[in-house]
Design brief:
By secondary structure, the protein is mainly α. The chain contains five helices and two strands. The chain has a two-stranded antiparallel sheet. The termini are close together.
């Protein structure tokens, strides 16, 4: 089951954490452009492990930045 990232919430939390898109990608252990693609809504679903990595890097819970995609 993949999760749908909430781009606006990820962006808000990233800015509040004083991180660039690239910085958050690296802190989460993702490719350098991963957050950029999520925030531009090019990436419409993400694996729960990636979502957890982003949430951990932002010091929040997954359900604050993603919604469940029960159809996937």
């Amino acid at each position: 089951m993949y999760l749908i990232p909430i781009a606006s919430e990820i962006r808000k939390k990233r800015i509040d954490a004083h991180l660039s898109q690239h910085g958050l990608s690296l802190k989460a252990g993702l490719g350098g452009q991963a957050i950029n693609r999520i925030e531009r809504k090019e990436t419409t679903s993400i694996h729960p492990l990636r979502a957890q990595a982003i949430a951990s890097a932002l010091n929040c819970n997954v359900d604050e930045i993603c919604i469940c995609n029960k159809g996937a």
